[in-house]
Amino acid sequence: MTDGPLREDDALLREMLDAPGGDALALPLLADDELDKEARRSLRKEERDIAMQFHTGRMWVYAALTVGCFLVWVSLFPLAVMGLLGPVGLALGCVFATFCAAYGFIPSHEAMHSNIYPRGHKHYWANELTGHLSTIPIALGFGVARLTHMEHHKYTNDAERDPDYTDGAPNWWQAILKTWWNRQPGVEGSVMRYKRMMADMDTPASRRAVMQTTLLQLVMFGTFFGMAWSGYAIEVALLWWLPRQVGLSWIRYWLSWAPHHPQQMGRYDNTRIFKARLGYWASMAMEYHLIHHLYPGIPNHRQREAFHALKDVLGRQGVDVSAH
Fold first, then answer.
1. Half-sphere exposure of 71 toward its Cβ, with a 13 Å CA cutoff?
2. Residue 80: which domain range?
3. Burial of 99 (0-12, 13-18, 19+ CB in 10 A)
4. Helical ranges in 82-171 per DSSP H
5. Residue 32: per-residue pLDDT
6. Distance between CA atoms of 71 and 168, rounded to whole angstroms?
7. Do residues 36 and 130 share a domain?
8. Mean pLDDT for each consecutive 10-residue tract of the chain (324 residues)?
9. Highest taxon of the source (predicted)?
10. Pair 48, 172 in one domain
11. Is 28 helix (H, G, I), strand (E, B) or coil?
C-alpha cells in the first residue's frame, strides 16, 4: 500500500505551508548570502518536489505489526493467570509489553496523520484500527492522541497552545525526570494540559475522544484491581503498569523533548535534526523529526532517506544539517 502524493486537501498541512512568514529563512543569512523572496520561493518548490517522492511506502506493515503485537500482549495475561509464564517468561513478557507501550506510538503516529490508509480509502478502517490498538498499552485513547497531536503541529513550541510544551527542560536528565513529574496529580504538566485542551475544544469529536479515554482507563484500572484482588498483583504490574510508565516516559522524551529542544519557533526551527547517543532505533527514529514537521505525510521509516535527499536544499536555506 502506498500513501500517495502530498495531500493538498489536508487543511492542517496547507495551513502550515501557507502560513504568514512561511518563506522566512530557518537561520539568519550572512550579509553576502542575501536571498530575495523569489529565490526563497524557488528553494521551497525544489524542497517540496523532492519531498513528494517519499510519500510512499509499505504502510500495511504498520497495521500488521500493531495487530500482531497487540494479540501477543493480550495473550500474556491469561498465560500469567494460568501460571504458564514462570519467572523468566514473566520477565520477558514485561520487556515485550514495554516495547509495545513505547514503540506502539510509532504506528499510532502514522495513523494520526492517516498515513497508513488515507481518508476515503476502502481500507481506512485499518488505519483507525491501528491507531486505537496501538495506544491501548499506554491507556490513552486514540482520539485524544490524534486531536492533541494536531494541535501540536499547528502550534509547535507555543507556550500556551502546544499541548506538549510542558515537556521542555534545559537538559536531558531533567527532561527524563519531567516525563514522570508531569504525570503526577495536580501538576500542571502534559496530563493536565491535555485535559484542559480537550475541554476547551468542546466539539463532538473531542467529547467522543474523552469518553474513549475514560472507558479505556476504566478497563485498565479494572484489570489492575481484578488481577491484584485475585492474587496476581505482580503479574499485572509487570505486564501493564510498569510497561505503561516506562513507555509514557520514553515517548515523551524522544517525541516531545529531544527533537524540539530548545523549543524555538519557526518553520525550520521548531524541531531539529540531531544525533541520538543511543542510536537511530532507540530514539524511535526521531533523529530526523524536522522532516516529519515539514512533511507529515512522509512515513517514519522513510524520513532518514528523505532527509539525505533534502539535505542540500535545506542547507541552502540555512538549516543546520551537520548532525548527519
1. 6
2. 60-257
3. middle
4. 86-103, 105-112, 124-134, 142-154
5. 36
6. 35
7. no
8. 42 42 37 64 93 92 97 98 96 98 97 96 97 97 97 95 95 95 89 93 96 97 97 97 97 96 92 93 94 96 96 93 92
9. Bacteria
10. no
11. coil
Q: Are residues 109 and 210 in the same domain?
A: yes
Cβ pair 314, 321 in contact under 8 A:
yes
Grid cell of 97 as nine digits: 509489553
Instruction: Name the residue with cell 504538566.
Output: 189
pLDDT of residue 259: 96
Take residue 322 and report the three cell numbers written for it.
Answer: 551537520
Give the HSE-up count for residue 116: Cα atoms under 13 Å, Cβ half-sphere. Answer: 23
Looking at residue 36, what is its pLDDT? 73
For residue 101, give the nearest of 66, 125, 137, 143 by alpha carbon. 137
Q: Do 118 and 39 sit in the same domain of this protein?
A: no
Which of 217, 162, 170 is closest to 193 using CA atoms? 162
Residue type, 59: M
d(CA 79, CA 276): 37
* Residue 257 DSSP code: I
Q: Which residues contact 121 (CB under 8 A, 6 or more apart)?
A: 127
How many angstroms separate the CA atoms of 97 and 73, rounded?
A: 6
What is the full DSSP assignment across 210-248?
HHHHHHHHHHHHHHHHHHHHTT-HHHHIIIIIHHHHHHH
Q: How far apart are CA 26 and CA 11, in angstroms?
A: 23
